[in-house]
Amino acid sequence: MNDDFEQNLEAVVSNYAGQSDGSHDMSHMRRVKQVALRIAQSEGAGDKVVLIAAAYLHDLVNLPKSNPNRSKASAMSAQAARPIMTELGMSPDAIANASHAIEAHSFSAGVPAETIEAKILQDADRLDALGAIGIARVFHISGAMKRPLFDGDDPFAQARKLDDSNFALDHFDVKLFKLPAMMQTVSGRALAEERVAFMRQFVEQIRGELLPDA
What is the DSSP letter of 176? Predict the structure, then answer.
């Protein structure tokens, strides 16, 4: 693979910029790539070319969270990525590997990750939903969807069911705090636990500001 591989991938992904919701933009692709390579190095496993290609191409088709076909977006991305990877000179085996990783990365798709590259990509993508960046993404996306920060009458769901389809703060307990246990690699889980610890501090700060006498 030549030195222009990543630059060519970025050029391709930039053509899909109009589909970005601001949390699945080029910056997201780069972060996922960097974390994927970090995990691969820590685990001593994973094909670098496959991971770089999958990281850049995993969100080629990015459907809004409210779209009924959201769970199919990763399969659509994998299909759209195949001709791109062929054009970039990847081998058939590498293309098949990267395509599986792309299809399996999605939380909503529910596709089991069967290769180490798929497991690493899934971990890297989920890690971008955690930590300081993860907090920023929650409120960015919720704002774009015109959802309130929290339920003003019961912000911590003490007398109601959690509902992250309506309240941004609920998303932490509904999904994000559960991600460490779902990580596929030892390195990914360690990073996830570290980032979630920071997020819990953030939520406790909100609790102290909203319910100072609780």
Answer: G
CA-nearest of 32, 166, 192, 162 to 106 is: 32
| pLDDT level of residue 1 (50, 70, 90 thresholds) | low
Let me know: does 128 contact 192? Beta carbons within 8 Å.
no
CA 63 to chain centre: 13
The answer to whether 109 and 72 are in contact (CB under 8 A) is yes
Query: The whole model's pTM is what?
Result: 0.88
Distance between CA atoms of 211 and 64, rounded to whole angstroms? 33
Here the contacts of 1-10 (C-beta below 8 Å, separation 24 or greater) are 1/49, 1/89, 1/90, 2/89, 5/49, 5/52, 5/88, 6/52, 6/56, 8/88, 9/52, 9/53, 9/56, 9/57, 9/88, 10/56
Which pLDDT tens digit goes with each residue over 120-149? 999 999 999 999 999 999 999 888 888 999
* Buried-exposed string 6-40: b where 16+ CB fall within 10 A, e elsewhere: eeebeebbeebeeebbebbbeebbebbbebbbbbb
Question: Over 11-66, what HEC string results?
Answer: HHHHCCHHHCCCCCCHHHHHHHHHHHHHHHHHHCCCCHHHHHHHHHHCCCCCCCCC
Cα–Cα distance measured from residue 60 to residue 188, given in angstroms and rounded to the nearest whole number = 23
CA distance 30 to 163: 31
